[in-house]
Amino acid sequence: MKISNSKELFAKAQNFIPGGVNSPVRAFRSVGGEPLFIKKAEGAYLYDEDGNQFIELINSWGPMLLGHNHPKVKAAVIAAMEDGTSFGAPTAREVEIAELIVSMVPSIEKVRMVNSGTEATMSAIRVARGFTGRDKFIKMEGHYHGHGDSFLIAAGSGAMTMGDPDSPGVTKGTAKDTLIAPYNNLEAIEELIKANQGEIAALILEPVPGNMGLCLPKEGYLQGLRDICTREGIVLIFDEVMTGFRLAKGGAQEVYGVTPDMTTLGKIIGGGMPVGAYGGKRE
Ligand SMILES: *Cc1c(COP(=O)(O)O)cnc(C)c1O
């Protein structure tokens, strides 16, 4: 297979972009080899800069549920572009998408749009802290919630830089408010809560984690978390950036019948555009 154009582009990119890529997961460093530069995609196929065709098994890490460059999506994007791109004022389309999200995701009564999954999780934690007046939150070992400072601790595949899952540059002050628990273990949650009584604002997790390899929740685990959070006044946040609109129209919360207080969304609602959202109870 000829990949000389990709090789040339990668060599050039390293002069201008750290590591030659805009996300560490694209660098192939942890698995060896060099990245291919993609020129275009259509349906189930990707085409690189050397004209090689590939069957697309990654779906751009989630968003391309309908396949690449679907004619209906493409037509809608072009039609929207005819009206301009940004106004700094409300639009009818925002109301339409908010209504659609609220109708699909069980836990979401109100939703706010942001630009990425990272912004959605950062904002959800801030809301939970504001609501509870508490500072700390619990995240699960190996779960990824984007590249906000307080999440880059035991953050799984999405944060792997040079094989190190924890990012330099995150301060000890920030890290001390992030409590780490193992997934699928309710006793560990009870212990953390006992040791930090009245101090925990939120518990965030990927209900069905994909960033530590695919893992299924044990029978009763998600309901157990729901019960503990209700008892302790902790805001339960499902990060459904990957599972939302994918495991079911209403995400993992629909499949498992457990309703969190807040939900974060991304990837798929953008269909390849940079979009995220977070929402929850009206309260
Ligand atoms: C990708 C991902 C994020 C971050 O979303 P970005 O749009 O890349 O910022 C957050 N949570 C989960 C579960 C993800 O898979």
Helix content: 25-40%
Percent of residues in β-strands: 15-25%
Task: Give the terminus-to-terminus CA distance.
Answer: 57 Å
Order of helices and strands: HEEEHHEHEHEHEHEHEE
Name the average pLDDT. Answer: 92
Could you tell me the number of beta strands? 10
Low-pLDDT stretches: 160-165
Q: Can you count the helices?
A: 8
> Mind telling me the C-alpha Rg?
20 Å
Form type = globular
Bound molecules: pyridoxal-5'-phosphate
Structural class: alpha/beta
Largest sheet: 7 strands, mixed
Strand order of the largest sheet: 4-10-9-8-7-5-6
Structure keywords:
283 residues; alpha/beta; three-stranded antiparallel β-sheet; 8 helices; 10 strands; globular; binds pyridoxal-5'-phosphate
Describe this structure in words.
This protein is of the alpha/beta class. It is 30% helix and 16% strand. The chain has helices at 4-16, 71-81, 92-104, 117-132, 172-175, 186-195, 221-232, 252-256; strands spanning 38-42, 45-48, 53-55, 110-114, 136-140, 178-181, 200-205, 235-239, 262-265, 276-280. β8 (235-239), α8 and β9 (262-265) form a beta-alpha-beta unit. α6 (186-195) runs parallel beside α7 (221-232). The N and C termini lie far apart (57 Å). Residues 116-118, 121, 144-146, 158, 206, 211, 239, 241-242, 266-267, 276 line the site of pyridoxal-5'-phosphate.
